[in-house]
Amino acid sequence: MTHQFRAELTTGARNRALSSGWHMRLVEGPAPRGVSGQLIPASRPGAISQDLTSVGLLSGAAESGAFGSVQSADWVARCGWEYSVDFPWRSSGEGRAKLIFHGLAPTASASINGHALQPGPGQEPAFHDVGALLLNGINTLKITLTPEAPPVPAGVNTPTS
Would you state the pLDDT for residue 143? Predict the structure, then answer.
């Protein structure tokens, strides 16, 4: 579940990449103990295995991190993840504020300050007019990635072809 994701906020002639300060957390799925409830530093939405490895939650890291490490990453794609980034913004009166997504997965959803953004037009990049949703001060962008395959409860047999 790795996506080449980028987000930028544009207002008039100003462009601001939202490329640092991301965190992720598990929102659903069969994750090992130690992952649930953790706010994990992240490089960008969609780099789940890379980010889990860098903090020692997946084996393959040079050392075990503070959370311990898990041998297999099979569970990662069966989980839902929420990414968030806080960023400052001040209205400049230069025009409409647009949020531009590049590489947002079709199964992803996004919100700013708790307000859901409607899905983009189905082509890259996806544009959202967010001027009415931005606050003068700190704002929060959240991206939620749903599991690639729905979690299967333990003890349930799945049909085979």
Answer: 94
